[in-house]
Amino acid sequence: MEIEKRLAFLQQTYAVSIAETVNTYEKLKVLNAVVEKRKERQPQAAPYLNQQLGIKSVEDIFHTLSEIYGCANWTVKKIEDGYVAEATSCKLCAFSKKMGGANPCNGWCLDPMIAMITAAGRIDAESITVESTLMNGNCCRISIHIHEDLNNASQNPFTYESKRR
User: Range of 127's domain?
Assistant: First the structure.
């Protein structure tokens, strides 16, 4: 089997496994507690993930995770005071809906990404807004606002290298 097909198979298997787990947690009525525990641990794991994945910018987080997991088709746009990231398809949401409809977004996607964003620099979690998800809308949309005093490149640790490539 070609390496690309193997990777696609592993990505799909991973998404199915997470969807099954989330739906099982929901049926056992422990999903919210599990999501909260995972959210508490995300800040501890995020710096290590950023380092291991070579994360240097907000864009890197979305692009790298899309490439590795092959799940959501994230696009990231720079706006005047930050970024807007949007995905119009997500395998994890699609599988989870088919398996019962439990929401995997926070515990397995959004919370880890938000932790990675905050770990990578001077953007606090309160500056990140999840506007919609594919579980309840037609896209997953996240706004990331950088405060004025952090908006210049000398103070902001993000290098914006993905724009220069």
Answer: 3-164
